[in-house]
Amino acid sequence: MSIKDKDFQFREIITKAVCGKGRKFSQVSHNVTPANTPTSILGAWLINHQYEAAKASDGVEVIGTYDINIWYSYDGNSKTDVAKETVSYVDVIPLTYVDKKHRASTSEVSALATQEPNCVEATVASNGDSVIIRVEREFQIEMIAETKVCVLVNPHGLPDYEKSFDFDDADLGEYEDLDPDLIDEDYN
């Protein structure tokens, strides 16, 4: 049967669907000034990451915060301390795929951190008073909205698939070696 057959009809259905997608990888640097002049960095990590997504004219804004914790030594490596700082950020992520036929008034956006903010390098700055933290993060975004989809409709319904099958002629040779004791009682 051909699609051009007059028995078939087309319908437009309005549904919610993913109508836009995007992804962005970012590398940023933060400058943190501890209470004491650092001698060396013993560790750096990011915690308490929180974010939300909001519609923007040129894509989606991911607005978030995280805490930077730097464990460092000072006084000629004789003492240690932890410097803490909360950082805010806004990443604008463009939609690389957009369904042009979506209803903009119904759109909702969401973001997923595919790579949580992570400290990839922490070094004492050249001035010796602060620590430079290099952070990587990545987000994937989706825009969900109402859109139209076109479907092919058979007015006669589904074909009759209730054909009776004759298993007597089937090749059951591969099942002869099955151990009936291994069959789960719940399926009998």
What is the SS-derived class? Answer: mainly beta
Could you name the ranges where pLDDT drops below 50 across 5 or more consecutive residues?
none
What average pLDDT do the residues reach? 86
Largest sheet: 4 strands, antiparallel
Strand share of the residues? over 45%
* Gap from first CA to last CA: 41 Å
Helicity level, as a percent range? under 10%
Number of domains: 1
Assembly level:
single chain
**Count of helical segments?**
0
Number of strands: 7
Strand order of the largest sheet: 5-1-7-6
What is the rounded Rg? 30 Å
Instruction: Identify the overall geometry.
Output: elongated
Q: SSE order, as H and E? A: EEEEEEE
Short account of what is shown:
The chain is mainly β. The chain contains no helices and seven strands. The chain has a four-stranded antiparallel β-sheet, with no helix packed on it. A three-stranded antiparallel β-sheet has the order 2-3-4, with no helix packed on it.
Which helices and strands appear, and what pairs or packs with what?
Layout: E1 9-32, E2 38-56, E3 59-74, E4 79-93, E5 97-98, E6 103-124, E7 131-153
Antiparallel strand pairs: 1-5, 1-7, 2-3, 3-4, 6-7
